[in-house]
Write a structure and sequence with these properties.
The complex is a heterodimer of chains A (285) and B (605). In chain A, 61% of the residues lie in helices and 13% in strands. Chain A is α+β, with helices and mostly antiparallel strands and 285 residues long. About 4% of the residues of chain A have low confidence. Chain B is built from ten helices and 30 strands. By secondary structure, chain B is of the alpha+beta class. Helix content of chain B is 24%, strand content 36%. The N terminus of chain B is likely disordered. The chains are: A alpha+beta (285), B alpha+beta (605). At the A-B interface, helix 1, helix 2, helix 4, helix 6 and helix 8 of A face helix 4 of B.
């Protein structure tokens, strides 16, 4: 591994990580930001004055102008809750959590609002491993998942390159120091096995992180998850009101959209429940 | 319309018309009234009794001034003293079209190959608005003569004739018998019809003796509870009892029975009827009516509420039972409303009604089951239930109240993940109510959506680079390993590079005026190049060995000559007396580079 190669690798790492971060995040747009900022501030002022419906108007205006911020969505969820609109409150808490999954306030408020909903909310039973993976998956947003995946990818490639030059002078000189932190040393592995172990672990982490990022990306792009925003919505067996009325769902219920027809959307609920509802009765997260 | 069936067997009072006898067969026709209004319904009953197996359908006389409808057929078989007796009644509904005095002609039968005819019956039809005396007043068994003069009679009465909506009216039917008459079979009782009432039978049947007019009667009483469903004036219709007495009794009867019983050779039958009872139903008063009054009318209504647990976890279901007790038609009472249940999810899980009739008063117990699931921890209270109702005895509205139910809701299993150790001995925090967490301040830099993936392709390229670097590293390492394993190959591979380095050093030496050193370097570069290519020591390398090497590698003659000249010029310059100039040295060095590059490119790579 030459000094020139090291610089190339370092430059690439910086470029990749920065690029990932920038790509998955949203660009700053200073032009309309000022107005949007004022709208959000006025929304907060209305909320603090107890004018919750007015606060909703300000926040919604900011959202319409393209503002995307977990704080804004969280505050809008609060304003909707205080206005008695539980469905939209759930919608915006979900949107806030998608951007900032570790926002404990949004999670607490969502839990509280869900406990007030008319429909029973489904929570899937999961095993220990699945719970751990899900927990990790739920702690990172899309940008963070992509960044983690990129970092793991870079780390795996670096370890692979070092492995290629494992007999080189530089690697031979540095390995005894680096391997102090390697579990392979305690397991009695030789240098090759140690590198193989490191690459296997990194590969597994990369697959897990990449899968998580892929799912988040797919969720964002496909926009399948949606929230019922009408008080009571009849679910028909087909995309018209002449079809059989199967059951009813109520505001705040999270559903998964399957397919779309003009004015209608096919939904799926846990427990193999499926049907068609008016498109206007749900909002995609 | 059971009473019509009963009527079909007997001709009561005014309806009796006549009979036809032939051997042991009797055929008779009767009308349920002798005077009728235009458009009203008159029932013609044709009865054939006796020993026969099958009868033909009766042939009605011409009835052009009536609309005629079939009213059905009823049939009875009995065996008395080993003799089979049959009785078939055919009913027809006649609707007179116009006024006048009519005679319903004979109705013909064919039985056992013989024809039987009934006697004609007279019927007077009056205008639709005319007053007509109905058979209910006076009835055969009530009002036609003082009860005291009779051996058997029935009598109906109500405990009150003015009530509120949904207040109980107890109707009592008394069957009086002085024991002088022997009944051939049990009396056949037809309860009264009562439109606009919810009815409950009130067992048990009551028996006692009563002295009336110097006679001792055995009285059988049955009772019914009537609950009017709306205000207005309603009637409880006549109840009817059909009795059949033996001929011996018949001969001993007083004039009334002589007139009204009919002999058919196997007992005498008569239908006794009560008078209608008019009930005035008052609407519930508007004054003092609570806003949430839902129409419950009862006496002494009580309400209770209980839970099967007092300490529960969040999400744990609690069975809540609400019980309502009171006098009245509790079965129809709407369930009380659970209020203040924001901290719970509430599911109705069923209801059960029990009706008791102690002392002939309808009492009800209604039980409602709920499942309530606490949504948040803390000490929660299910507020006391209230049920406003109207008490018809006190004639005012009142409210039944239950006790409140307190629940201590502990954190659920989900919330026990973090163990909290408390210091001190203070009380736990009491959650009074729960609300959402407050809004967040607006961040100083708000992000604006520009769409995801604006630099996606660039990112893919950037992420492809590490794989290229890895591939290059693998290539480099493989080459290095190959050279390490084959020294000759390694020397040949770097022969030109080493030679060019020496030639560069030679040029520097020439420019510095160190011409001897420069020529030595040129000669070393050229001989070193061939030594590396031949994997031989440079020191012992001869021109002949080089030329042979070049010939073996197929180098053309011109190149071989150029190499020979180059080496010769180097030697001449190094060993010539007086030395050569630096310019000559640089020219030889440049020529050496060209020759070696040419060989490398053409033959020796």
């Amino acid at each position: 591994l030459t000094a020139r190669g090291g610089w190339v690798l370092a430059a690439w790492t910086v470029a990749a990580v920065t690029g990932t971060w920038w790509n998955a995040s949203v660009a700053q747009a200073p032009g309309p930001q000022t107005n949007v900022y004022e709208l959000c501030v006025r929304g907060n002022q209305s909320y603090e004055a107890g004018e919750f419906e007015e606060a909703v108007d300000f926040y919604e205006e900011a959202v319409e102008r393209g503002a995307v911020a977990p704080e804004l969505f969280y505050n809008l969820g609060n304003a909707y809750y205080k206005s008695g609109n539980l469905g939209r409150a759930v919608l915006f808490y979900e949107r806030s959590l998608r951007l900032a999954p570790r926002n404990e306030d949004a999670r607490a408020n969502l839990t509280l609002v869900q406990s007030m909903l008319r429909d029973r909310q489904f929570i899937e039973e999961r095993g220990v491993v699945a719970r751990w993976v899900t927990w990790l998956h739920g702690r990172l947003n899309l940008s963070e998942s992509l960044l983690l995946t990129s970092l793991l990818y870079v780390a795996l490639v670096i370890v692979a390159i070092v492995f290629v030059f494992r007999d080189g002078a530089l690697v031979s000189r540095l390995y005894p120091k680096i391997s102090l932190a390697s579990p392979g040393r305690f397991l009695g592995l030789d240098k090759v096995q140690d590198f193989a172990l490191a690459m296997a672990v990194l590969s597994l982490l990369l697959i897990a992180s990449g899968t998580s990022a892929y799912h988040k990306y797919r969720d964002v792009r496909s926009r399948r998850a949606a929230i019922v925003v009408r008080e009571e919505v009849p679910v028909f067996s087909g995309p018209n009101t002449d079809s059989t009325l199967q059951f009813k769902i109520h505001e705040g219920t999270r559903i998964s959209t399957v397919s779309v027809r003009p004015g209608w959307v096919q939904i799926r609920l846990p427990g193999d429940l499926s049907g068609w509802i008016a498109d206007s009765s749900v909002e995609r997260i | 319309m059971k009473w019509i069936l009963a009527l079909s067997v007997l001709a009561l009072g005014v309806g009796f018309a006549g009979s036809a006898y032939a051997e042991d067969i009797s055929v008779e026709a009767s009308l349920d009234q002798t005077v009728a209004r235009v458009g009203s319904e008159v029932t013609l009953t044709v009865t054939v009794e006796g020993k026969f197996r099958r009868s033909s359908e009766p042939e009605l006389p011409p009835l052009s001034d009536f609309d005629v409808y079939s009213g059905g057929t009823s049939q009875n078989f009995s065996m008395i003293n080993g003799r089979v007796q049959s009785s078939v009644s055919y009913r027809y509904v006649l609707v007179p079209k116009k006024e006048g005095a009519y005679e319903i002609g004979s109705v013909a039968f064919r039985l056992n190959d013989r024809e039987y005819k009934t006697k004609p019956i007279k019927l007077e039809v009056v205008a639709a608005t005319a007053s007509v005396k109905t058979p209910d007043a006076p009835a055969a068994g009530e009002g036609a003569a003082p009860e005291q003069d009779r051996s058997i009679f029935i009598q109906a009465d109500v405990d009150r004739d003015t009530v509120y909506v949904n207040q109980q009216v107890t109707w009592t039917l008394g069957y009086y018998s002085d024991g002088r008459i022997t009944l051939l079979r049990s009396p056949n009782y037809t309860p009264p019809e009562a439109e606009g009432f919810w009815v409950e039978d009130l067992p048990p049947q009551n028996k006692y003796y009563a002295d009336l007019g110097g006679r001792r009667y055995l009285v059988n009483e049955i009772k019914r509870g009537y609950f009017p469903t709306s205000p207005g004036i309603f009637e409880i219709g006549p109840a009817k009892v059909e009795v059949v007495v033996d001929d011996l009794s018949f001969n001993r009867l007083d004039d009334f029975f002589s007139r009204n019983f009919r002999s058919r050779g196997f007992g005498k039958s008569q239908t006794l009827a009560t008078k209608k009872k008019k009930i005035v139903v008052l609407p519930l008063p508007q004054r003092g009516r609570p806003e949430d009054f839902s129409g419950t009318v009862a006496e002494g209504l009580t309400l209770s509420m209980s839970a099967d647990k007092q300490v529960v976890q969040v999400g744990e279901p609690v069975n809540l039972v609400v019980v309502m007790n009171g006098k009245g038609n509790i079965k129809t009472v709407a369930p009380p409303k659970l209020t203040g249940m924001e901290s719970f999810k509430v599911y109705e899980s069923g209801s059960q009604s029990d009706v008791f009739k102690k002392d002939y008063v309808v009492t009800g117990r209604k039980k409602y089951d709920y499942v309530v699931v606490p949504k948040m921890q803390g000490r929660h209270t299910i507020p006391a239930l209230e049920m406003p109702y109207f008490d018809p005895v006190k004639k005012r509205y009142t409210v039944a109240r239950s006790h409140a139910v307190n629940l201590d809701v502990q954190p659920g299993a989900k919330e026990e993940g973090r163990k909290i150790i408390y210091a001190g001995t203070g009380d736990d925090f009491e959650v009074i109510s729960q609300d959402i967490r407050y809004i967040h301040p607006v961040p100083s830099s708000l992000a604006m959506s520009t769409g995801v993936g604006a630099s996606g392709r660039l990112l893919l390229v950037v992420h492809a680079l590490p794989l290229l670097v890895l591939a290059a590293s693998v290539g480099v390492e493989r080459r290095r390993r190959r050279f390490r394993a084959n020294v000759g190959l390694a020397r040949a591979s770097r022969a030109l590079r080493d030679a060019e380095k020496k030639l560069d050093a030679a040029r520097k030496a020439f420019r510095a005026g160190r011409t001897d050193e420069g020529f030595t370097a040129v000669a070393g570069a050229v001989s070193g190049y061939f030594a590396d290519k031949m994997n031989a020591a440079a020191a012992g390398l001869t021109l002949a060995a080089v030329e042979e090497f070049l010939r073996n590698r197929g180098v053309d003659e011109d190149s071989t000559v150029a190499v020979r000249r180059l080496l010769a010029d180097c030697d001449a310059a190094r060993f010539a007396s007086g030395g050569s100039s630096a310019d000559q040295g640089e020219e030889i060095a440049a020529r050496g580079r060209d020759v070696l590059r040419s060989l490398e490119r053409g033959y020796l790579r």
